[in-house]
Amino acid sequence: MVTVLKQVVGLLALLFTFTMPTYAQSDNAYQEALQRIEEAAATGASELSLSG
Predict the structure, then answer these.
(1) Residue 52's pLDDT is what?
(2) Using DSSP, how many helices (H) and how many strands (E) does the chain show?
(3) 14-46: pLDDT as tens digits
(4) Cα(1)–Cα(13) distance, rounded to whole angstroms?
(5) In this structure, are residues 46 and 38 in contact, taking their beta carbons and an 8 Å threshold?
(6) What is Dmax (Cα atoms) for the chain?
(7) Contact (CB, 8 A) for 29 and 36
(8) Based on the number of CB atoms within 10 Å of its own CB, is 51 exposed (0-12), middle (13-18) or buried (19 or more)?
């Protein structure tokens, strides 16, 4: 029983390790896009590119 619990905790730790950096990257991209949208709205831009 303890071995199974250790395996589950280890698996969750491993998943957490890979999930958090991905979430952080997408949050930065979201913030960048939001900033560009707000700037375009403030300046009355007729076009907006969210690519790279």
Answers:
(1) 66
(2) 1, 0
(3) 887 776 666 556 678 888 888 988 998 999 888
(4) 18
(5) no
(6) 63
(7) no
(8) exposed
